[in-house]
Amino acid sequence: MKQLAIIFFTLLMTTISAQEVAFEKFYKINKEQSTFSINLSASLAGSFLDDENDGDLMNIIKKSSDFKLMIFDNEDNTISKDFRKFSRKNNFKTLARVKENGSKAALFFIEKTNYIREIIIKANSNTDKLVLFGLKTKITKDELAAMIASSDINVSSK
């Protein structure tokens, strides 16, 4: 019985550690360069939105968990380079990239079994900070596309 309990506990710990999200792993690796980080609950994140005006975004938040906002010191672009390597190693897919006047933003996602499991937003400028916002989710590409299509943000190139 004791051996069965040990095997069960080992499997449980393996399962729990396997579910760690990529943005949490990146934070743990680069914790020393972090100047600020906060975990947010879905209910707290949703409280800042208006249900009537942000319906698609509210659906994403309702299907999400493990929100984390992280700010890193990025002197000499070390953290940006580390994140680029980390994103390639963890098979992040890039949904969008924007550059303007030295500022950069990118939207990444991780897809597993036909669901988008993580969304990570990266933003930095020519200052010495890098901001990451990550969330664990379970949405389809169609749900994400509907949210983007219904957005009133206009993107244009010059």
Structure description:
The chain is of the alpha+beta class. The protein is 38% helix and 35% strand. The chain has six helices and six strands; from the N terminus they run ααβααβαββββα. A six-stranded antiparallel beta sheet has the order 1-2-6-5-4-3. It starts with a helix and ends in an 8-residue tail after the last helix.
List the helices and strands and how they pair.
Blueprint lengths: L1 H17 L3 H8 L4 E7 L1 H5 L8 H8 L1 E10 L4 H12 L3 E8 L2 E10 L2 E10 L4 E11 L1 H10 L8
Antiparallel strand pairs: 1-2, 2-6, 3-4, 4-5, 5-6
Short description:
The termini are far apart. The protein has six helices and six strands. The protein has helices at 2-18, 22-29, 42-46, 55-62, 78-89, 141-150; strands spanning 34-40, 64-73, 93-100, 103-112, 115-124, 129-139.
Query: Which structural class matches the secondary elements?
Result: alpha+beta
Q: Topology as H/E string?
A: HHEHHEHEEEEH
The averaged pLDDT comes out at: 76
* Biggest beta sheet attributes: 6 strands, antiparallel
Number of helices: 6
Beta-strand segment tally: 6
Trace the largest sheet across and list its strands. Answer: 1-2-6-5-4-3
Instruction: Using the CA coordinates, give the radius of gyration.
Output: 18 Å
Quote the beta fraction: 35-45%
Q: How does the overall form come out from the CA principal axes?
A: globular
Helix content: 25-40%
Low-confidence stretches: 1-18
N-C termini distance? 69 Å
